């Protein structure tokens, strides 16, 4: 968990991704996931693994999708980031709502 917290802070996106072999997406640990995990597990949380705190099957989008679809997904699911994956579920990147705001789509 210390590595997860470090990654979340370093990247400034409020999330850390959990990947497996060949960069295949396994899950995500969001700020909210982390807060709920710390509340539930208390002091022992720092000794546990990212897999214990992650959301499995997070909301994703393909790189070929339009920015408007990404924004609609984020608004509908009340999330601020979408993970971009390829057809095999390999993580390719993250789209944050702030990225979309800078496109002046609104």
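-> sequence recovered:
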């Amino acid at each position: 968990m210390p590595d997860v917290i470090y990654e979340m802070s370093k990247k400034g996106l409020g999330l850390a991704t959990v990947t497996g072999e060949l960069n295949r997406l396994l899950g995500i640990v969001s700020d909210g996931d982390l807060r709920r995990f710390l509340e539930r597990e208390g002091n022992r949380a720092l000794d546990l693994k990212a897999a214990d705190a992650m959301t499995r099957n997070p909301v994703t989008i393909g790189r070929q999708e339009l920015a408007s679809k990404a924004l609609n997904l984020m608004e509908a699911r009340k999330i601020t980031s979408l993970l971009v994956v390829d057809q095999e579920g390999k993580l390719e990147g993250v789209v944050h709502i702030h990225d979309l705001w800078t496109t002046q789509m609104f």
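The radius of gyration is 14 Å.
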